[in-house]
Amino acid sequence: MTFSRRDFVKTSVLGAVAAGVGAQAQDKEAKKNAASQDHDAQSGARKRPIIVCANNGFNYLDDAFAFLKSGGDTLDAALRVVKGPEDDPNDDSVGLGGLPNEEGVVELDACCMHGPTRRAGSVGGVRDIKNVSLAAKAVMQHTGHVMLVGEGAERFSVAMGLPRETLLTEHSRKIWLLWKEFHSTDDWWGPGLADPHWQAPPAKASDEKPRSELWRQRIEELQARAAEIGIEPELRLAAVRKVLFPPTGTIHCSALNDKGEISGCTTTSGLAFKLPGRCGDSPIIGAGCYTDQDVGSAGATGSGEENIKVAGAHTIVENMRHGMSPQEAGMDALKRIVRNYNGDMNKVRFIDMTYYILRKDGAYAGVSLWEGYSKGHPHKIAIHDGSRRAEVAVSLLKGYSQEFPPFPEIPEDLKNSSEYLK
Ligand code: GLY
User: Fold this and answer.
1) CB burial class (10 A; 0-12, 13-18, 19+) of residue 344?
2) pLDDT tens column, 375-394
3) Measuring from atom 4 of ligand 1, which residue has the nearest CA?
4) Options 74, 169, 250, 301, the catalytic residue
5) Closest Cα to atom 5 of ligand 1
6) Which of 193, 298, 316, 405 would give a disulfide with 329, using CB separation of 3.0 to 4.6 Å?
């Protein structure tokens, strides 16, 4: 994809808006990817078979690619990738060890689409079942429904042979407790008045202190509390970040074989500390994942509520159906998210979204709303088409969604970038 001049000007303006300028090397890599992922401009560069996924699937690509290459089904190949993070207790965005809801209970969502048979399955709000991606496939294969939620989905999963197990790890429980105690000036959690660790509530923004000072103080207090809770020193800052910016995690994977068959799946523990029962985009066919055997496949990680409102994955596949390249199709979906906030960067900066896009001919793209969640942490997609690699996603906006600590402020005159919406 080549940006139009107007796009370029708009993106440059937004670059000035964003909370920092990307490292030069990262910029260079993103530009290289912008060109190399634009397979419309490089006919012959497309390869099949190919698997595209979120970067937390990187370690599982070799096995899935070998399976796909030896004639394995495209959905089963994609499921092999996402099962890795689901089984990994150290990946706190998916399956076992996922960050829990506000009550400290892990609730998982997943969906899948099988291109060759044009079928779909989905589960939402599932507790105690680790491999919800397999539960979604079982809904597709063994019921006349597309989506099961909550207790019914759990009982169905057990009937399908998936074991019940405790999904909350000690690591995730401690981060949840830190989050819970962060609100302890508003409720009865955390140290009480008589506890030697009790501290007066932090000053409000209306007090004399500058906001940067208030943030610094808050982060220090949270780090001290994290130590009390028993979070290891090297994990404390990451835990504090998760408390201040509850992550959405997730993994998506799309797989295409040499015959042109294509499938996709997405699985997640959803937004950390969500209300019990909240489902994001991941179990929603058309939002977290969409596959059309005639066109291609797309999936998402990031702010679920925003992605549902633009039916992101379906929008992208439809855009490709009507002639857009994978990258153009993804950029259009991202612009719709910005449009939903009238370009108000004070709000858009709290949203994050990455799309993973694979067209039926093997062309692919990874696009993201922001460059990453903070400097040095670019959004990446992982690819295997015979060579396994990670590539920096091409971002719509320059800057980071969750600069940490969350500064600097957006300049007043650029707060509402309505130019962007034209
Ligand atoms: N994208 C995952 C979620 O919002 O639940």
Assistant:
1) middle
2) 788 999 999 999 999 999 99
3) 304
4) 250
5) 270
6) 316
Q: Specify the residue for token string 């379906």.
A: 314
Q: What are the boundaries of each domain within the chain?
A: 23-168+246-395
| Contact (Cβ atoms closer than 8 angstroms) between residue 336 and residue 310 | yes
Both structure tokens of 97? 């060890």
Residues with Cβ < 8 Å from 331, sequence gap 6 or more? 1, 367, 394, 396
Output the pTM of the full model: 0.86
Active site residue 266: no
**Torsion angle of C-alpha atoms 55, 58, 61, 63, degrees rounded to 10:** -150
Question: What is the residue type of 104?
Answer: G
pLDDT > 70? residue 157: yes
For residue 199, what are the CA distances in angstroms to 189, 191, 222, 259, 367? 13, 9, 11, 64, 43
pLDDT tier for residue 22 given thresholds of 50, 70 and 90: very low
- Give, for ligand 1, the residue of 275, 281, 306, 310 to mutate: max count of ligand atoms closer than 8 Å to Cβ: 281
- Which helix (H) or strand (E) element contains residue 266? strand 262-268
Question: 335: which 2 tokens?
Answer: 């612009």
Within a 13 Å sphere around the CA of 129, how many CA atoms are in the beta-carbon half? 29
Written as one string, the DSSP assignment of 52-97 is EEEGGGGGGHHHHHHHHHTT--HHHHHHHHHHHHHH-TT-TTSSTT
Separation of alpha carbons 368 and 361, rounded Å: 22
